[in-house]
Amino acid sequence: MIKRTIALAVLATLASGAAFAQSSVTLYGRLNVTAEREKVGSAKAVYALENNSSRLGLKGEEDLGGGLKAGFILEHGFDPTTGTAAASFWGRQSEAYLSSKFGMVRIGNFGSEAQLATGDWVSMHNHDTGTSADRLYAYFGSDVNKVAYRAPAFVKNLVLEASTAEGSATTKRTYDLAANYELGALKLGAGYNKQDTKKQVALRATYDIGAFTVGTYVQRDTNGIAAGSRNNLRLAGMYTMGASEFHANVGVAGKIGGVDGTKATQATVGYNYNLSKRTKAYTYYTRFNDGAAAVYGGDFSSLAVGVRHNF
């Protein structure tokens, strides 16, 4: 009886070990903080510490066999300058997914596929975060209560995605479509999303030429920023030299619905020094010029120095 008990215990241990080997959980995160001299409109300049989308996350995946996998992502936003947690603890991202040769189904809270395929790619110097984030891109709709599908690669290096997010008593459902395609040094993206009368479509391209990377997107939206249609264009460039990166980008948004005083521009120059694969020190200057109608919230500029660490 004792031998049988020991044998069963050994078998149970081996079985649990095999199951554990088929799954994994990873802790990851980013701390990204800048010290800045900021100026809003005609007000006197102020000095501030800024959080640049710092986060802490857990992700895991289990191999269910037969090519089927189940996984999750839980991501928490926080401000390292104060230690303050975001109002919704897992508010940055919280999703479960199933994937197979037939594609991937995602359920939960996660960002716009259209924006990730277009605008996010072109903000290379600080990952579209903080005070130098792209203020001209029309981002709207809901990121919560989403169901998404990512198609298998019918064409090599082509990724197609679609999602819908639940509306509410006052807002309608959001629809989101995206495509990403890589052809060597050339990488292309397209995105479309719609919520009620708000809609936008954008196209993106980036190209690597030796030490240079150039990128651009163009966006057309209706009622995305204010009532009316508008065109938005951004150009960006990066030059790498050893551990150094030199960045510049500029964005121009046209009149909204043909209304005077609604044009706006944004320009950023920056320098990153990669201390390691996970840590960089950087500095940038960004300036946003709003039109007379101030539909984007007014003029703004900032001179910043920062440190980013990924783990």
TrEMBL record:
<comment type="subunit">
    <text>Homotrimer.</text>
</comment>
<dbReference type="GO" id="GO:0046930">
    <property type="term" value="C:pore complex"/>
</dbReference>
<keyword id="KW-1134">Transmembrane beta strand</keyword>
<dbReference type="GO" id="GO:0009279">
    <property type="term" value="C:cell outer membrane"/>
</dbReference>
<dbReference type="GO" id="GO:0015288">
    <property type="term" value="F:porin activity"/>
</dbReference>
<keyword id="KW-0732">Signal</keyword>
<keyword id="KW-0626">Porin</keyword>
<keyword id="KW-0812">Transmembrane</keyword>
<keyword id="KW-0998">Cell outer membrane</keyword>
<dbReference type="InterPro" id="IPR033900">
    <property type="entry name" value="Gram_neg_porin_domain"/>
</dbReference>
<feature type="domain" description="Porin">
    <location>
        <begin position="7"/>
        <end position="290"/>
    </location>
</feature>
<dbReference type="InterPro" id="IPR050298">
    <property type="entry name" value="Gram-neg_bact_OMP"/>
</dbReference>
<dbReference type="Pfam" id="PF13609">
    <property type="entry name" value="Porin_4"/>
</dbReference>
<keyword id="KW-0813">Transport</keyword>
<protein>
    <submittedName>
        <fullName>Putative porin</fullName>
    </submittedName>
</protein>
<dbReference type="GO" id="GO:0006811">
    <property type="term" value="P:monoatomic ion transport"/>
</dbReference>
<dbReference type="InterPro" id="IPR023614">
    <property type="entry name" value="Porin_dom_sf"/>
</dbReference>
<keyword id="KW-0472">Membrane</keyword>
<dbReference type="InterPro" id="IPR002299">
    <property type="entry name" value="Porin_Neis"/>
</dbReference>
<keyword id="KW-0406">Ion transport</keyword>
<feature type="signal peptide">
    <location>
        <begin position="1"/>
        <end position="21"/>
    </location>
</feature>
